[in-house]
Amino acid sequence: MSIRILLVEDEPSIAEIVEFALASEGFQVAWRHLAGEAEAELAATPYDLVVLDIGLPDGSGLELLKRIRRTSEVPVAILSARNAELDRVLGLELGADDYVTKPFSPRELAARVKAILKRTARSSAASQETAGQPTESTWFEIDEDRATICFRGRSLELTRYEYFLLKTLLARPERVFSRAQLMDRAWPDPAASFERSVDTHIKALRAKLRDIDPRVDPIRTHRGLGYSVRASDRS
Q1: Quick one: 9 and 124 in the same domain?
Q2: Of 116, 36, 109, which is closest to residue 79 (Cα–Cα)?
Q3: Are both 149 and 125 inside the same structural domain?
Q4: How far apart are the first and last CA of the chain?
């Protein structure tokens, strides 16, 4: 099956170059020049990767990335004329898998896209292998219908924010989430809170996990970066 890539770019000349470079590698490319069109397309059709410009006529590509990450882990490569360190760091913290600046080499862009897809394929294969293995050492169980999480077989008494924070971390064990990413996924209005709120809720979560099993500390702090979680003895 052909790899499907969604290109979100408002400049036709650049879109043509990107389309040609990716199509030459055998990818199937769909082009949309507005954020709203791209969001509707992603809701209607599954894609394997998104190439996303930041400056779009109807809104910020970074805001679109934030909305995508609320519901999807589809790989995203940002393609932007903004090359400041702050822009690159922000894009990666919001969940982009790569950040390519304009002007760019079409061959390099295609190579980066292939590298992202290769990493995604390896991760998917690893998940499938793990799914068939015994799960005795898995520490957590999530019941999304009841909005509950069990640790070591015991249900955790969690607040709304604690539940969404832990659920976000458990969706990608070992992945480091920045405070901004955690706030964006756990708070209905991240702008109304402070990043230190994440630290407060993480501290409360650790205390509740410790009450059940003081021998392990599943939540890891990565100084200057954020938090990750171990989901089992194997992770």
Answers
A1: yes
A2: 109
A3: no
A4: 32
Residue showing tokens 């940002």: 78
Neighbours of 108 (CB within 10 A): 11
pTM above 0.85, yes or no: no
User: Residue holding tokens 């990608």?
Assistant: 172
Q: Do 28 and 108 belong together in one domain?
A: yes
In terms of domains, do 8 and 82 share one?
A: yes
Distance CA 233, CA 235 (A): 6
Domain-embedded: residue 135: no
Q: What is the pLDDT of residues 210-232, one digit of tens each?
A: 999 998 899 999 988 899 999 88
Residues 149 and 122 in one domain: no
Measured CA to CA, the distance from residue 135 to residue 218 in angstroms comes to: 17
| Alpha helices by DSSP H, 29-188 | 35-44, 61-71, 85-93, 106-131, 160-171, 179-186
Q: Which of 151, 124, 149 is nearest to 138 (CA)?
A: 151
